[in-house]
Recover the amino acids of this structure.
């Protein structure tokens, strides 16, 4: 416990790779490489979309939002993880923990909303291609961005504010190298029933809504594709969705597994928590730029224009 004046602030101890602390410096090498790939890849996508006027379309605006949230997720977990791996700097205060959770969980919740918006974008593009630009105007995309941000605040702020009412009495050892809400509340020695219910409600109001809506969007997309007479046009229409389907899979599958491990996998080995958390927070930022660069012709063309020697 740290005493500041008359106030007492609880502290927490971050964890690297359990049982392999002597090899942290070696684990930091692939971690840093993945972070560099994620930051370079997503900033490159942002740059080519902003500077290339041919990419000023709704699909690429949403892709820019996705890259922004991926950059935010990477930067949010980077300082404490490198602190643990490089300097064994494990101590973090509750206020610093809450601040990190605001950005880490906030960007994660916004990415979920962006993926839902991208599913709607693909539905409109395939269902009503002639009215696509009329439906998804710039003003509506800006409004969608504001709604995504406000939705994040409404779902996240009660979780973080409720943490201040908890008492922490024990050693407060966390399972990760960053602060993760279910991990933090397990350290409390007071009742966490309200916090758990609020966390479950927030999960239902985000991924619990987004996943079914994305699934419904693709059911309607498939129905629209099957109504197209030409097999070649059907193939092209579905091809425009491949990148988004990949982004949805690499984001939601590790997130759902991590949530299940935290709620029901109490007997799982410690390295399982570490592995799933790293998969959840590192894989989407690393793989999304690669997927969109490989599977989206316009992004690939813009990338070649930026780096002509990569052809």
């Amino acid at each position: 416990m740290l005493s500041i004046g008359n106030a007492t602030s609880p502290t927490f101890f971050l964890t690297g790779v359990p049982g392999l602390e002597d090899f942290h410096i070696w684990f930091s090498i692939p971690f840093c490489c993945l972070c560099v790939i994620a930051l370079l890849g997503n900033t490159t996508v942002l740059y080519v979309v902003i500077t290339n006027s041919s990419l000023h379309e709704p699909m690429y605006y949403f892709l820019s939002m996705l890259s922004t949230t991926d950059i935010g997720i990477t930067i949010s977990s980077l300082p404490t993880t490198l602190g643990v791996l490089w300097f064994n700097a494990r101590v973090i205060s509750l206020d610093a923990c809450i601040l990190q959770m605001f950005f880490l969980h906030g960007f994660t919740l916004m990415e979920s909303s962006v993926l839902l918006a991208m599913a709607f974008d693909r539905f409109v593009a395939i269902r009503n291609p002639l009215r696509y630009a009329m439906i998804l105007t710039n003003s509506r995309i800006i409004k969608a961005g504001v709604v995504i941000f406000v939705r994040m605040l409404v779902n996240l702020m009660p979780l973080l504010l409720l943490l201040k009412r908890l008492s922490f009495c024990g050693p407060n050892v966390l399972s990760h190298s960053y602060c993760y809400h279910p991990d933090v509340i397990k350290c409390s020695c007071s009742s966490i029933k309200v916090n758990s219910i609020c966390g479950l409600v927030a999960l239902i109001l985000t991924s619990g809504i987004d996943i079914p809506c994305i699934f419904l969007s693709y059911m309607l997309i498939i129905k629209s594709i099957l109504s197209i007479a030409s097999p070649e046009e059907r193939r092209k229409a579905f091809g425009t969705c491949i990148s988004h389907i990949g982004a949805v899979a690499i984001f939601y599958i590790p997130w759902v597994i991590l949530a299940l491990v935290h709620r029901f996998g109490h007997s799982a080995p410690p390295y399982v928590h570490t592995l799933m958390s790293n998969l959840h927070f590192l894989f989407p930022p690393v793989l999304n730029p690669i997927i969109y660069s490989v599977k989206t012709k316009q992004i690939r063309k813009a990338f070649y224009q930026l780096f002509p020697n990569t052809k």
User: Anything to note?
Assistant: Residues 115 and 270 are 30 Å apart (CA to CA). The mean pLDDT is 89.
